[in-house]
């Protein structure tokens, strides 16, 4: 059996979006759900399958800390769960189709980790080479400056809004990332670019353990900011990303409306 994990932190809009995300998992799967958050009284959800724990953030006021806090949720989730497989979703990512354990394990294709490669930003000229250059100049430069990037042909810009992985690998990533973060005395930023959880996960998959991450198809992390034709009918998970700015007051309503629309299509 798998466990689905969320990290919800900060504004009312985060909690409103997070509630919709959690509801989608409770409605469309039989999985237990774990929520790491900064105030459990604000979640306002009840289910026998729901476990909630307040997670202490990393110290500091820089905006990166709320994103890096996702690793605290990783820690708490694996500590409070017996499952061997975990699906981590951002608070603005929701299920649109029924999901079961067999589908998750088949998607991993004998790998220990699975994510979707973000290949572009819609309306821009961003491509894998441009993401590789960003990775070289920012992620590696801040976290692991002694490492050389992989060849561009081997590089994948994995989006961490949806992370699927086995317990042992999730624990290893989390232990490494938390150790590195705890040793850093500076704000997680290079120029105007924030260094967040995605940067750590990309170094793990591209430099430290290349080849261990299964490239999931677009259906597993479908977003208007990197997929044309959003929302597509075949999407499994819709991600209402806002480029690290967090959900807006209207995000929860958009999530609710899309899930209702997709469910009506199934019933027709």
Compact overview of the structure:
Helix content is 38%, strand content 19%.
Protein described:
The protein has 268 residues and is of the alpha/beta class. 38% of the residues lie in helices and 19% in strands. It has eight helices and eleven strands. The chain has helices at 12-28, 64-68, 70-79, 101-108, 128-143, 167-183, 197-208, 251-267; strands at residues 2-8, 33-37, 50-54, 85-89, 93-95, 113-117, 158-166, 189-190, 193-194, 213-216, 237-239. The strands form three sheets. A seven-stranded mixed beta sheet has the order 3-2-1-4-7-6-10, sandwiched between helices. A two-stranded antiparallel ribbon has the order 5-11. A two-stranded antiparallel sheet has the order 8-9. A hairpin with a 2-residue loop joins strand 8 and strand 9 (193-194). Helix 1 (12-28) runs parallel beside helix 8 (251-267), helix 3 (70-79) crosses helix 6 and helix 5 packs across helix 7 (197-208). The longest helix has 17 residues, at 12-28. It is globular and about 50 Å long. The mean pLDDT is 94.
The main pleated sheet reads as: 7 strands, mixed
Classify the beta-strand content into a percent band: 15-25%
DSSP strand count: 11
Order of helices and strands: EHEEHHEEHEHEHEEHEEH
Shape: globular
- Output the structural class: alpha/beta
N-to-C terminal Cα separation, in Å? 31 Å
Strand order of the largest sheet: 3-2-1-4-7-6-10
Tally of contiguous helical segments: 8
- Residue stretches low in confidence (pLDDT < 50, at least 5 long) are none
Q: How many whole angstroms does the radius of gyration measure?
A: 17 Å
Average the pLDDT over all residues and give the rounded result. Answer: 94
Helical amount? 25-40%
């Amino acid at each position: 059996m798998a466990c689905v994990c969320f990290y919800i932190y900060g504004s009312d809009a985060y909690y409103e979006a997070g509630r919709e995300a959690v509801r989608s998992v409770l409605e469309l799967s039989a999985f237990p759900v774990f929520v790491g958050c900064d105030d459990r009284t604000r979640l306002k959800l009840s289910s026998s399958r729901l476990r909630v724990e307040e997670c202490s953030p990393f110290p500091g006021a820089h905006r990166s800390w709320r994103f890096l806090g996702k690793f605290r949720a990783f820690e708490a989730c694996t500590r409070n769960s017996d499952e061997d497989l975990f699906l981590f979703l951002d608070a603005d990512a929701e299920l649109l189709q029924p999901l079961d354990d067999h589908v998750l394990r088949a998607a991993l294709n004998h790998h220990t980790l699975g994510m979707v490669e973000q290949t572009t930003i819609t309306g821009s000229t961003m491509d894998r080479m441009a993401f590789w250059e960003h990775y070289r100049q920012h992620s590696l430069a801040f976290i692991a400056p002694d490492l050389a990037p992989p060849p561009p042909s081997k590089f994948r810009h994995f989006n961490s809004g949806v992370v699927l992985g086995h317990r042992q690998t999730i624990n290893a990533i989390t232990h490494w990332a938390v150790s590195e973060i705890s040793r850093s005395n500076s704000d997680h930023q290079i120029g105007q670019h924030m260094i967040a959880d995605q940067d750590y996960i990309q170094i793990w998959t591209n430099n430290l353990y290349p080849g261990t991450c299964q490239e999931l198809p677009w259906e597993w992390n479908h977003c208007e900011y990197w997929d044309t034709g959003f929302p597509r009918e075949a999407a499994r998970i819709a991600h209402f990303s806002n480029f690290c700015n967090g959900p807006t007051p209207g995000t929860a309503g958009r999530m609710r409306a899309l899930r209702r629309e997709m469910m009506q299509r199934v019933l027709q």
